[in-house]
Amino acid sequence: MKYYRVVFLVGALFLAGCQASTPSTESVSEHSASSYQETQATSTIQEEMGEQEPSTENKNVVDQGMDEATYLSEHLPLEELDSITLTDNRNKRVLLFSDDSGERYKSIYLKQKRWLKIVSLTDDELIFNQEI
User: Fold this and answer.
1) For the residues 97-125, what does the mean pLDDT come to?
2) d(Cα 76, Cα 50) in Å, to the nearest integer?
3) Is the pTM of this model over 0.70?
4) What whole-number distance in Å separates Cα of residue 78 and Cα of residue 73?
5) Residue 132 has what DSSP assignment?
6) pLDDT by residue (tens digit) across 50-84?
């Protein structure tokens, strides 16, 4: 008799454990809602900080109003290159320059320090690195 009680209790615990581990529809929808809210909060924070998503269009994004535009045009053949913005927020702007053969140059401009770094990706060489 004791044997049957033990088997019954073990079986009941096993089944109870299986039922508790499967998520209910409510918890799945709650998870989806919280995930959506986190995504919305992240995009709001990015907008407030002035961050932009990386641009996927190949075009020349160098504007003469940019602080570093003069230095970029002095050190890079901008008319031969397409450029995309990887990062542009209130602290820094990162531009990637490419041509038909691939990615050629990268510029990093620290806005508050007014520091510009231009790197050749093909030669792994630092072209420019100073305050402007």
Assistant:
1) 93
2) 27
3) no
4) 6
5) -
6) 555 544 444 677 777 788 889 999 999 988 999 99
- The two tokens of residue 55 are 């641009």
Other CB atoms closer than 10 Å to residue 75's CB: what's the count? 15
**Neighbour count for residue 23 (Cβ, 10 Å):** 9
Contact 116, 108 (CB under 8 A): yes
92: closest CA among 69, 73, 116? 116
Residues sharing a CB contact under 8 Å with residue 85, sequence separation 6 or more, in sequence order:
52, 54, 55, 61, 93, 94, 95
**Residue 92 Cα distances to 8, 104, 106, 110, 111, angstroms:** 66, 20, 13, 4, 5
User: CB neighbours (10 Å) of residue 93?
Assistant: 21
Say yes or no to pLDDT of 11 above 90: no
Q: Do 82 and 59 meet the contact criterion of CB atoms below 8 Å apart? A: yes
- Asked if 76 and 97 count as a contact pair (C-beta separation under 8 A), the reply is yes
Q: Specify the pLDDT at position 55.
A: 45
Backbone phi and psi for residue 51, each to the nearest 5 degrees, phi listed first: -80, 150
Is residue 62 within 8 Å of residue 123, measured between CB atoms?
Answer: no
* Percent of the chain whose pLDDT exceeds 90: 36
